[in-house]
UniProtKB/TrEMBL annotation:
Principal cellular location given in the protein's record: cytoplasm
Keyword Amino-acid biosynthesis: yes
Site (Part of a proton relay during catalysis): T53, Y116
Annotated function: Catalyzes the condensation of (S)-aspartate-beta-semialdehyde [(S)-ASA] and pyruvate to 4-hydroxy-tetrahydrodipicolinate (HTPA).
Gene name linked to the record: dapA
Gene3D superfamilies: Aldolase class I
UniProt-recorded name of the protein: 4-hydroxy-tetrahydrodipicolinate synthase
Residues that, per the record, bind pyruvate: T54, V210
UniProt organism field: Streptomyces aureus
Subunit structure: Homotetramer; dimer of dimers.
Length: 301
């Protein structure tokens, strides 16, 4: 039931905001990243987003970010797009990361609003345009004001849509009215960055999702979109509702999604490893609760 005249999503529909696997000593685990990436694609992910919030981008170096792109791209080839997170609080640094990601083989860029400095909208627009001009890669803007302190206002998004390489938005603004306003005025592909909005946003013309929960349940989450596309909206709603308990436990129960995803990946025998400080691992009680919710979700999906 996709909109008839809407173009195909530029990075696929079901995207995983992939964790960055680390070894027990905290070093980057490139072999683990390749194995996890291959597993996620085999389980139905149509795109992988690296070095975002879930990927612990604030605690990885520029060299580690580039190495991660190269390793994951080697593992998945041309089967799915690999989108590299390059956003920082510094325009110049973000430009450098964008160039590095392109050289490393990324298929697209994820660019978050500069955080802490809270630039006004005209400065924010100029920042995104400079990044989009810095490489030949398509850009997904990342609107997450709860973390950055700055909203990308709808009017700003509408203006930015005129740039030929700004093609998508990862939406974590919790504002469905604004999302529909931008969808109606532009050709931007809107991805739900909050799993509870995956189906509602898709139903009004969104492109799909970029999901932390997809690290552990990619096939079950993709089934929401598949059911909707098949015309079975009741089944899509059922699957979305079944996901809610796991989504809440992973994303809205006091622990960051990176922590909960890595706890579950470890329990499932998949690469993930420890988190880097200042994050701390989930305790045994929390990890046990996550596994119980996960098992219930996948058993009924």
């Amino acid at each position: 039931m996709s909109l008839v005249n809407s173009p195909p999503p530029p990075f696929g529909r079901a995207l995983c905001a992939m964790v960055t696997p680390f070894a027990d000593d905290g070093a980057l685990d490139l072999d683990g990243a390749q194995r996890l990436a291959a597993h996620l694609v085999a389980e139905g992910c149509e795109g992988l987003v690296l070095s975002g919030t879930t990927g612990e981008s604030p605690t990885t170096s520029d060299d580690e970010k580039a190495a991660l792109v190269r390793a994951v791209k080697d593992a998945v080839g041309e089967r799915v797009p690999v989108v590299a997170g390059v956003g920082t609080a510094d325009t110049r640094h973000t430009v450098e990361l964008a160039a590095g990601a392109e050289k490393a083989g990324a298929d697209g860029l994820l660019v978050v609003s500069p955080y802490y400095s809270r630039p006004p909208q005209d400065a924010l627009e100029a920042h995104f345009r400079e990044i989009a001009d810095a490489s030949g890669l398509p850009v997904m803007l990342y609107d997450i004001p709860g973390r950055t302190g700055t909203r990308i206002e709808p009017a700003t998004l509408i203006r930015l849509a005129s740039h030929p390489r700004i093609v998508a938005v990862k939406d974590c603004a919790y504002d469905m009215l604004a999302a529909q306003k931008v969808l109606g005025a532009t050709g931007l592909a809107y991805y739900a960055g909050c799993e509870e909005f995956a189906l509602p946003l898709y139903a009004v013309g969104g492109a799909g999702f970029v999901s932390t929960v997809a690290n552990v349940a990619p096939r079950a989450l993709r089934a929401v979109l598949d059911s909707y596309d098949a015309g079975d909206t009741r089944e899509a709603a059922r699957r979305q509702q079944l996901a809610a308990p796991l989504v809440e436990l992973m994303m809205a129960s006091g622990l960051p999604g990176t922590v909960t995803a890595k706890a579950l990946l470890g329990a499932l025998g998949l690469p993930g490893g420890p988190v880097r400080a200042p994050l701390r691992p989930a305790g045994h009680e929390a990890a046990d609760g996550l596994l119980t919710a996960y098992e219930k979700f996948v058993s009924v999906s």
